[in-house]
Amino acid sequence: MTATSPAPTLTATPGQTIGPFFHFALPFDGDRDLVAPGTPGALLLHGTVRDGDGAPIQDALVEIWQADPSGAVPRRTGSMRRDGFTFTGFGRSTTDISGRYTFTTLAPGGVDGGLPFFGVTVFARGLLNRLFTRAYLPLDGAEPDALLTSVGERAGTLLTERDETGLRFDIRLQGEGETVFLTYPGHSAS
Amino acid sequence: MPELETQRQIDAEIAATAHDYEQSGAEETQPRLDYAPYRSSILRHPTKDPHHADPEGIELWAPCFGERDIDPLEADLTIQRRGEPQGEKIVVTGRVVDGQGRPVRRQLVEIWQANAGGRYIHKRDQHPAPIDPNFTGLGRCLTDDDGTYRFTTIKPGPYPWRNHLNAWRPAHIHFSLFGTDFTQRMITQMYFPGDPLFALDPIYQSIVDPKARERLVSTYDHDLTQPEVLMGYRWDIVLTGAHATPLEQEDHQ
């Protein structure tokens, strides 16, 4: 429990699966374009979501929430009506038939001196509650932070990899290379 | 396609897990991710425990949505097309609060649902019930300063699915919610009181604690019901944890 979070007194409402039929409801125009393609500094954050057999998951939804390149936390509205100029820091992408999600965005800066990372939330049919994780920028010689250190040998699942279009971050729900998912103070174990 | 199992087999698995839970003496408040009666979960649940993280940086904040994002008319699912949709018109309203009961103000709530006949407007929905040309089943709104959301819609029907033979989902509305912190993001389903399918549904039963799963069931509220117009349901939502306001953060520094 962090010093800044008072203990909750109410029990949280349970989550449920996103189910198979969200595609007509949750996507919106420009949902995965935090900046317009071609914007100076724009990169593609992308990856494949896979199940315990390594098969791509075609009906997942991935969301990201990030700082701007200076490390400032965006406080601007307008994610659902992109104007091409306002950086809101929020993006949403369905996975396609190959299990791939994509975002066009800018590399986040570190907030308050921390390592830069994207906050990532994963939903899918068959997944009974949302999963949280972090997609860190490549360390490039920087020291791992407390979280990466505490994760130990699985820390690599939290690191993006640079490729020809930007950054790759694969998500494995189960099995070999299973992504480290996070729980925060105030969350119950199950 | 493999032969589907029977409801009786699913019931036996649900009952065995419920029995083990009762014996354990523990209290769980969220669904299990590893819940085999919901067959699609078998290969889609992490096998390792989630790693504890103290929220930092971006995780202490949530995306902002505002009047630029949402048209107030999107909260009424009965006026999106030219005519009146089929079915029982209802209002669903309640408050979104954090773990300390503080309202989540001016935040986005999204819903989606089947029509009165149990059919979604979705290309993968193969249920032969008719599509209603006057109903899309998609709504959005912002909570007000008291954390209250409000939707006018049609009561959704139950619908069949292929988890097992003769599987039917209880009527429900999907809810997508943001808090004041990234860590409060959630998606869930709201149900209607007294549904006979509750006991048979592995998604609802994946919340193995009876008190916990009842938190997903709305309450019929006659004070919300409008004479000769619609029926009213109330459902309040508590997000995980309690957020720190910027002022409190400063106080602790």
Provide a brief overview of the structure.
The complex is a heterodimer of chains A (190) and B (253). With 190 residues, chain A is mainly β.
Structure overview:
The complex is a heterodimer of chains A (190) and B (253). With 190 residues, chain A is mainly beta. Chain A has one domain (22-172): Protocatechuate 3,4-Dioxygenase, subunit A (Sandwich). Helix content of chain A is 3%, strand content 25%. Chain A has one helix at residues 146-151; strands at 43-50, 60-65, 90-94, 100-105, 117-124, 131-136, 161-162, 166-168, 171-172, 182-183. In chain A, strands 1, 4, 7, 8 and 9 form a five-stranded mixed β-sheet that branches. The radius of gyration of chain A is 17 Å and the shape is globular. Chain B contains four helices and twelve strands. In chain B, a hairpin with an 8-residue loop joins strand 8 (172-177) and strand 9. Chain B has helices at 7-24, 202-205, 210-214, 246-252; strands at 51-52, 89-97, 108-113, 138-142, 148-154, 159-161, 167-169, 172-177, 186-191, 219-220, 231-234, 237-238. With 253 residues, chain B is α+β, with helices and mostly antiparallel strands. At the A-B interface, strand 5, strand 6, helix 1 and strand 10 of A face strand 1, strand 3, strand 9, strand 12 and helix 4 of B. Strand 10 of chain A pairs parallel with strand 1 (51-52) of chain B, so a sheet runs across the interface.
